[in-house]
Amino acid sequence: MKTVGIIAEYNPFHNGHAYQIAEAKRMTGADYCIVVMSGDFVQRGTPAIMGKFLRAQAALHNGADLVLELPVYYATGSAEYFASGAVALLDRLGVTDALCFGSECGDIQVLTALADVLLDESPQFQKILKQQMRDGATYPQARNYALSVTAPQLSGALSVMQTPNNILGLEYLKALKRRGCSIRPCTLPRTGAGYHNASLEAAYSSALAIRESISSREDIRYVKEQIPPSAYEIMEEAYQITFPILPNDLSPLVLYKLLSEMHKGFAGYLDVDKAFSDRLINLLPSYTDYASFCDLVKTKNMTFTRVSRNLLHILLGITGREMDGFAKDDYVYYARLLGFKKEAEPLLGACKERSGIPLLSRLSKADTVVESENGLKMLAADIRASSIYSLLVQQKFTGRLQSEYRQPVIVP
């Protein structure tokens, strides 16, 4: 039995994702595909446009065999934390033979060479990096200059680190090497529109283009050609019932959180230092909505996405202290099962037999199988995040507040 892992957000699931799953199985000769997927909040610092169980269902209808939730600490973290948490989860399952990821580069040898240098930062590299940043360079600029000096043989490949999927791919490779695990990496060249391309005209449009079309129109039929038929049916059934949830739906909750804690500041939340905390407090009187506030707070050295991610950390109660504790404790304590195919029961059985962490299918039994204090803290954060997402859905579309404890595992 061969198994390939994919790390994804599926925000939302589209044709390019179905293509990646099929190609990942073909390239690796895998019998099964395990997807580690972000839950209800994503790395851009926003709620997912569709809830995690709907996105898992779409994936299972289109080639995935088993879908696990990436804990919210990693799903909303930097590229390094996102990759480290997801790779640790795949590794500790004990059944993953390969990890397949998309990249603009498409060359695993080039990416591996860069990852090796970045993983082993020499004293000279660190010295140049710090000096460049003191001189006003952004981190990517400083890193590229330090690499050009300390690893001139890779100068021609520095452009690789300017695109998002390559950057994430490098973090996957670094995480695999740090763990010394046997999972074999492979990369699939990105097909169709670029990550930031907002056009729906490409054969494989980006998730960004699909989200923007959905948010700017009162009809989802414009994205129909970009979504696999079974996934589009799921989208249609949920439309204006639980979907779409958009970034500005966070506006009142974030404002309340900022107002209620401004007296003590926000330093201590993950990636939030005193300078950023002070900036939030100073600009808070100008708050109108979530997206506009992110735009107002951003600076030359802090992107819109980083601002929104930090605000999400504050809202969800994600702290740097807890993240440090999780990272020192090998990142993951359980594998939360969102869904699986009936045909993949042998894979599920292998996971239960070989996994170094418990497989959670029912939250009601979590306390009996997640034994460590850190594990319970991480699970509490996941449940809290999903409760907040459920509140967003209830506020926008009315209806009952959904409980994580009542949600069954998806078996299409």
Structure overview:
It contains 18 helices and nine strands. With 412 residues, the protein is α/β, with parallel strands linked by helices. It folds into three domains: 3-104 and 185-194 and 331-406, HUPs (Rossmann fold, 3-Layer(aba) Sandwich), CATH 3.40.50.620; 121-162, no CATH class; 248-321, no CATH class. α2 runs antiparallel to α10, α11 (251-261) packs across α14 and α13 packs across α14. The two termini are 22 Å apart.
Give a brief outline of the structure:
The protein is of the alpha/beta class and 412 residues long. It is built from 18 helices and nine strands.
Which keywords apply here?
globular, alpha/beta, two-stranded antiparallel sheet, 412 residues, Rossmann fold, seven-stranded mixed beta sheet
**Shape call:** globular
Strand tally: 9
Bin the strand percentage: 5-15%
Order of helices and strands: EHEEEHEHHEHHHHEHHHHHHHEHEHH
Instruction: Report the mean per-residue pLDDT as an integer.
Output: 93
* Main sheet characteristics: 7 strands, mixed
CATH third-level topology of the largest domain? Rossmann fold
**CATH superfamily descriptor of the largest domain:** HUPs
Which structural class matches the secondary elements?
alpha/beta
Helix content: 40-55%
Low-confidence stretches: none
Q: Over the alpha carbons, how many angstroms does the gyration radius reach?
A: 21 Å
Number of domains: 3
CATH level 1 class label of the largest domain: Alpha Beta
Number of helices: 18
The CATH architecture of the largest domain: 3-Layer(aba) Sandwich
Strand order of the largest sheet: 7-6-1-2-5-8-9
Distance between the termini: 22 Å
